[in-house]
Amino acid sequence: MAFKNFPQVDQASINSERSENVLERLFSQANGFISRKENPDKGCDYDVELIVDDTNAYNWRFGIQLKSVEKIAVVDEGLFISYAFKTSRLNYLLNRPVGDGLIVIFDDAADIAYYDFAQAVYKRLTVERGSEAWHENEKVNIHMPVTNVLNAVSVKTVHQWFAKNFTTASFILRSQGPRYDFPVIASQDDEFDVHNPEKVKDLLLKYGFGLMRAHDVPLLYDMIRVVPHATLERHPELLIMAAIVNGEVGARYESQHLIQKLKRRSLITDEHAHLLRFTELKNRFGLGEIDIKEFVTELKEERQKVQSPQNQIVLDLNIILHELLMPKFYHQLPAGIYERIRSAYQRIQTLDVDPQGKQMLEVWNTENLASFIAYYRLKQLNQLAIQRSMGVKNRSAELVKESTMLANLQQELFSELERLFKVGQDTGDKLLQAYTILVRSSYVLTQEIDVISQMPVLNDIKFHNKEMFLNTVTLSLQAADLFRDLNFFEPAYRSLYYGIELLTVSREVHHYKDDFDLEFLMKVKSDMEQHWELYSYELVVPGFIKKLATENKQHEERPMSITKDLDDEQLLNMAKGFCQAMNLPHPCVRYVLDELKGYRTFYRANTDGYEIKRAPLHPLYEAEYHQPVKFIIRNNATGIVSLPVQNVETQLKSWGL
């Protein structure tokens, strides 16, 4: 460089400065951070300290590695950013007391910063690579979700994440450190033993609701169990916390007892009134004190009082799920319910909550999608059974369209569950993994019951092979263990219940061989009911199979006797489904409906010893269901047969029935 040449400011330097400005603006004291640029830089660019409770600098620090790139590269159909990262830098970030750090990639072209936690990156690499062989490489391509945009909202999530990690680490160190002669310096919290109720009480008072917001229910439950009831009762906030946490894990009797105590003493604060009300409703419904209709009505009333977007979506998800479960056989679903499910997915993404909170809401909404699919799957199977019974081979264009829609929805459901399960694996979130398995097990079980209900007509219909089915059983039992380890009693019980029911289907319907100990599983189920005072789930499949055999025999002897217990709406939807399956024009619906009502009238009367059948059509001028249906009624004892009649009730009255 000659005398008259000046140092050049290249684009890389400009981009680096821009990325640093963005990072320092977000990780500022106003947002709860003290950022210090590392000099010399030996493995990370920034050392960041958390500010706790708005003003306290706790010396809780983590590292940030910042990378500025001219244009990001994306993989997996645009879901992840791919970046070649030094393995030594990742190790350096993780080699901190809480074992985590932050990686930030700044896209120069788009002026957008993306982030991910070093732990999440490491776990994702381990899953993707299948081993730790990549440790020997100088660089490795890390993948970062494109949804992890660093902005004023997500930086709060980062703060919550590290605050939670440091809180837990501090708790473990102060409670367990003395056991290993590790020097523990007394803080304003003082050192304490995890088994010391007074010290645990102090920790709950300081951090309890923060841990609740961070979804750390298992840790809270373990801590609450250490504190004596007498101590809980001296602190209303602990009673409130205990009532909510017990309800979340499924200890409903204990939760209700605490809620009633809070009510009697008028200790419920406005801040927690909604959570306690929601917990109480779930308790009463789970204990069988209110039916599903009353539960939904109460939820809707509570929904009108709630202002928080997160609480609104939680209530909406519960309302949708139970509205899907409410309709009786052959009743219609509430109008617009699918649109509400789709809308819920979109609303979840806009919430100002941490990623774990969003993921749990997403998996709960997949349960709604699964229930929606199940309704239409049963309708399709019914129509297929009708066609086979009537000897119809070709399906109408409308039925083919519906079948394609159903297949697409099911693929969407399974893809979403697989995505969420993988997120749970990558982040070590066992609760998320367990809930995705729970939703899938429930879906597979209802799918099997739907097919069984149409046997023997649909004997050949299978949605699985042996390996897939037994794997679902195994996963369901593993989910029960995961939930139990996390102290989520009710979901643990449901997972075990689904596993037992699926195992029964495997053996009694598909006749698969397996190595499961069903007797032991039944004992575990009984022990869980007694130990945790859970509402007992009676096994459905064994009785259902026997009942089906009886109903099939009864149907042969008394055709259409099923109509006896159906209301007008059910009969109308049954008629519509039949016409759609048979590709009959819409005007035929009224004649099919009249036939169904005729059968219902007959079977609701005192007609033991009589039989009814449809009068045959005249093939030259009568087309099926294009004119009123007529019946012939026969007295089996006397052999007397009525003339073809359209009005069954009139004929029965004339015979004194």
Describe the structure in your own words.
The chain has 657 residues and is α+β, with helices and mostly antiparallel strands. Helices cover 58% and strands 10% of the residues. It contains 23 helices and 10 strands. The chain has helices at residues 11-26, 87-94, 118-129, 154-176, 197-213, 217-226, 229-233, 236-249, 252-264, 270-286, 292-303, 309-325, 337-350, 355-390, 397-427, 430-452, 466-485, 489-508, 518-532, 541-557, 568-582, 588-604, 648-654; strands at 33-37, 46-52, 56-69, 73-75, 80-86, 102-107, 112-117, 139-145, 610-614, 631-635. It has a 5-stranded mixed beta sheet with strand order 1-2-3-6-7. A 3-stranded antiparallel beta sheet has the order 4-5-8. The chain has a two-stranded antiparallel sheet with strand order 9-10. Strand 1 and strand 2 (46-52) form a beta hairpin. Helix 12 (309-325) runs antiparallel to helix 13 (337-350) and helix 13 runs antiparallel to helix 14. The protein starts with 10 loop residues before the first helix and ends with a helix.
